[in-house]
């Protein structure tokens, strides 16, 4: 199907691709971002994402300045599931994930009580092959999943279990910003996270969250979670087998289940990932690209890639779960 360019002018809408806005480099990307911030936010509100090509971003300081002109303020990440490089002032690398493996679709920090409403990405170095930050409309995904499955998740929610260790995934300091036990316990209580210190096996946490929410601005029902991404069956088989052998099936770095604790079968995870793939939009990165993503309306992931890749990310526009009509009520104390 041919691409179209409906209002706002210059936005290319092509099947299977994110909305693309092509611009001419100005030599002053932060000023351009400030001038066009409102228009870019309008594109994201209309389509769920916007890829800006031609801006010519070249270094981290410039990216930070652009991000700061597109968002009210940049969030500090808490409860990270994987390490990131910290650049400065709320600007991070993308999560460390094997280059040869697909990063499944997810909504950033959807297991928190507060999460970003807007994701900002910028590519400084594009690999030779692959690497797209892929996108999927969460309402389309919700409608495409079997009703009996989504209804169960609406009733029960989903449960994330994490076991922290010194080898795999984010460390306590990376996830909580501290290794102090009392501070971690206070954070968990304040954020409705059950916790247990396991002798010789680190910290184990459990948090139950809604799988379906309503967008706070539009009221759209959205499939908003990380059920498939953080489930054991999304891992590469050899990785899962290794982790089970080393840590045990009940002490994986992360795993998800139905809200009542029942395991989620491999068939369910494959189904969710297949629906995501059937509804994926992708465009390989080019150096200098900028992308804005509505984190509630639009899931994102990452294709495998070859060659160097440097993509910076920031999280902005904090949203409270309580403002999204959650189907599962949580009590923080």
From TrEMBL:
Its cofactor is Fe(2+). This is Protein AmbD. The lineage of its organism: Bacteria, Bacillati, Actinomycetota, Actinomycetes, Pseudonocardiales. Residues 28-315 form the TauD/TfdA-like domain. PANTHER family: GAMMA-BUTYROBETAINE HYDROXYLASE-RELATED (PTHR10696), TAUD_TFDA-LIKE DOMAIN-CONTAINING PROTEIN (PTHR10696:SF56). Keywords: Antibiotic biosynthesis, Iron, Oxidoreductase. It holds the Pfam family TauD. InterPro entries: AlphaKG_dependent_hydroxylases (IPR050411), TauD-like_sf (IPR042098), TauD/TfdA-like (IPR003819).
């Amino acid at each position: 199907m041919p691409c179209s360019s409906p209002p706002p002018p210059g936005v290319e809408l092509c099947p299977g691709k994110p909305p693309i806005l092509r611009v001419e480099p100005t030599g002053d990307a932060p000023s351009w971002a400030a001038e066009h911030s409102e228009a870019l936010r309008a594109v994201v509100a209309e389509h769920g994402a916007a890829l800006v090509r031609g801006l010519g971003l070249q270094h981290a300081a410039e990216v930070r300045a652009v991000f700061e002109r597109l968002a009210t303020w940049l969030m500090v990440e808490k409860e990270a599931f994987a390490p990131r490089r910290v650049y400065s002032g709320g600007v991070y690398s993308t999560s460390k994930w094997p280059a040869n493996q697909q990063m499944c679709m997810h909504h950033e920090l959807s297991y928190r009580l507060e999460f970003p409403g807007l994701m900002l990405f910028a590519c400084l170095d594009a690999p030779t092959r692959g690497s797209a930050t892929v996108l999927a409309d969460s309402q389309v995904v919700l409608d495409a999943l079997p009703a009996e499955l989504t209804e169960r998740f609406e009733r029960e929610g989903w449960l994330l279990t994490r076991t922290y260790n010194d080898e795999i995934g984010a460390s306590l300091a990376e996830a909580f910003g501290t290794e102090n036990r009392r501070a971690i316990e206070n954070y968990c209580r304040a954020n409705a996270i059950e916790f247990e210190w396991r002798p010789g096996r680190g910290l184990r946490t459990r948090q139950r969250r809604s799988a379906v929410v309503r967008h706070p601005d539009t009221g759209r029902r959205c499939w908003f979670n990380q059920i498939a991404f953080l489930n054991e069956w999304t891992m590469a088989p050899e990785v899962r087998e290794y982790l089970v052998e080393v840590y045990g099936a009940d002490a994986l770095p992360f795993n998800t289940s139905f809200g009542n604790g029942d395991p989620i079968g491999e068939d369910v995870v494959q189904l969710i990932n297949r629906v995501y793939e059937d509804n994926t939009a992708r465009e390989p990165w080019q150096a200098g690209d900028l992308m804005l993503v509505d984190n509630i309306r639009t899931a994102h992931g990452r294709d495998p890639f070859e060659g160097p890749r440097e993509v910076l990310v920031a999280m902005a526009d904090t949203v409270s779960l309580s403002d999204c009509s959650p189907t599962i009520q949580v009590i923080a104390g």
